[in-house]
Amino acid sequence: MKTRDQIYGQEAARLLRDVTMYRALTKPQLLALYPGKKEKIAALLNHLVRQGRIFYDSTNDCYHADAEMKQDAGMMAAVWVLIDFIEEVEFHSVSDYPAKLLFFAGGEVYEVIYVPLNQEALINQLWVQKEEQPPRRIVLVDMPEQIPRIHIPGCSGYCTVSPAGSVTYFQKEAN
What is the domain partition of the chain in residue ranges? Predict the structure, then answer.
């Protein structure tokens, strides 16, 4: 007979890893990161909060890695992009600036890059040197009107994320 720790231990560790790594996630995001395990994840979230291992902000329905954590809107939006691919994702993690996160899916490496409004020129300057094999990049923008001002090599597409987490994808029109 399996112990409770054997049954829930792996999911609890993964859940704790995700909240700690991404720093702040909403309950709908955490449930979506673990498809088909809604009840188990909800119970584990409650357990981790009771243990003081994560913190819950009821105002924003958000779980934080520590009590003073501020939400990173770009990271939270990037996680919604990740969730769109979660059924194919083999691994995911935070990444180095300017990418918010990266994931492996279908034998490819993807970076999700968040470009805040009016930061397009700054982000473009990060790619003045050519890369031999750039990863596939999904560029997350605040508004579709930003897309023509962005020039990032390896860009597979662009997207916006609604406050509710709905992701809309765009392709740059050929000139």
Answer: 4-64, 73-170
| pTM of the shown model | 0.91
Domain 4-64 has CATH 1.10.10: yes
Q: How many CA atoms lie within 13 A of 120 on its CB side?
A: 14
Is 3.40.50 the CATH classification of the domain at 73-170?
no
CA 41, CA 164: separation in Å to the nearest integer? 20
CA–CA dist 142, 165 (Å, integer): 13
Mean residue pLDDT of the chain comes to 90
pLDDT in tens, 78-112: 999 999 999 999 999 999 999 999 999 999 999 99
Going by pLDDT thresholds of 50, 70 and 90, the confidence category of residue 5 is low
Does the structure show a pLDDT above 70 at 2?
no
Comparing CA positions, the residue from 21, 10, 19 lying closest to residue 54 is 19
What long-range pairs does 112-116 form, CB within 8 A, spacing at least 24?
A: 112/78, 112/81, 112/82, 112/137, 112/138, 112/140, 113/137, 113/138, 113/139, 113/140, 113/152, 114/74, 114/75, 114/77, 114/78, 114/140, 115/139, 115/140, 115/141, 115/142, 115/146, 115/150, 116/74, 116/142
